[in-house]
Amino acid sequence: MNVPFKPYYDEGGITIYNADCRQVLPFLDVMDLVLTYPPYGINATKMTMGKGQSSKPKAKRFNSSWCDENIPRNLNQVLDAAKYACIWGGNYMTQFLEPTNDWLVWHKKNDDRSFSECEFAWTNFGCQSRHLSHNWGGELKSHPTQKPLDVIRWCFRWVPEDVQAVIDPFMGSGTTLVAARLEGRKAVGIELEERYCEIAVNRLQQRVFEFK
Question: What is the CATH number of domain 9-45+56-211?
Fold first, then answer.
């Protein structure tokens, strides 16, 4: 691995790069598992509901940094980063992913009907579809698409036994990295925004005594 970027953080088997993942991934060795949540955008399934208006779903909107016409190429680059994959939000990308029966489903136990009750992760684990009911509880949310730590740790329950090194190309606040360390795996995280890299480092450092 000869990455032309200095790590933002590199300690205890956890490495963070503050960069665009498309610039870093070509220089990394293929890892065991990519566990991530690509920036597929917002309002993907909102309905226009008003008097005298027809109801129809808005077009899927992906993060502008990915660009609609480049999604297949960018997603393939992410999938090529590891042997196995767990892609949260994969239900928005089915036209770019192989058909699978191996979905992970997080039931949020959320009474607020303005949000989806479930989120879905596409996998190629061969584990068949699995379901977890879990609410946020008192866990602090520091990123718009952050997942609860227990949900990400639950993902590791279904990964193949040979998974030892994990990569998250859209790291956000670092939940995948924290979960990987707690599960005894090495991990690489890539995040474009420095403020989230800082949050991730703080989360890792706050749990250092738990890891020991």
Answer: 3.40.50.150
